[in-house]
Amino acid sequence: MVLSSGGRSASSILVTSAQSGEGKTTISVNLAISLAQLGRRVLLIDADMRRPTLQKYFPQSGSQLGSYLAGEGTWQDMTYQTAVRGLFVLLCGPLPVNPAELLSSDRMRALLQEAATEYTFVILDSPPLLNVADARILASAVDTTILVVKAGTHPGRWSSTPNRRRAPRAQISWAWF
Fold first, then answer.
1. How is the beta sheet containing 121-125 ordered, strand by strand?
2. What angle do CA 91, 67, 69 make, to 5 degrees?
3. 48: pLDDT confidence band, cut at 50, 70 and 90?
4. Which of 13, 29, 65, 87 could form a disulfide with 36 if both were Cys (CB 3.0 to 4.6 A apart)?
5. CA atoms of 90 and 81, how far apart (whole Å)
6. What phi and psi values does residue 36 have, to the nearest 5 degrees?
7. pTM
8. pLDDT (mean) for 55-67
């Protein structure tokens, strides 16, 4: 699933869910660690600029996606290597007042394009789909999207929602947690 999307390699992967609390961050972290343990270079980005949680797994100061997107420094200088060999993290940093605007910026697209040349996989942990536009914005900028669905719910209802139509380029995969 991760290695192909529509017949081509998927190097940039967005992990999202319909609602909060469905396990998207846990899936993002475990996927990134697993790929790094397979010998791949992986960049894990906390693109949830409203309720970032990756810092709970990888506490580090100075790693600030929001600052980079606002025009400060280079994203490479704000990325750090974790204790897991091959796994690098770019945390959200301070909460911005305009997350959707920053995530849809040219700097975000440039980050994803440049990171794809430096890393085998770029994994983005994003906010839920139903609350804000952030995940839909990012879904059109990555190779594939993993939609995490809480166990006991039916994913079919999410595939035909207006949210899916708002990100027409998005390649959706499913993960139950």
1. 80-81, 87-90, 42-46, 121-125, 12-17, 144-149, 172-176
2. 95
3. very high
4. 87
5. 9
6. -65, -40
7. 0.84
8. 86
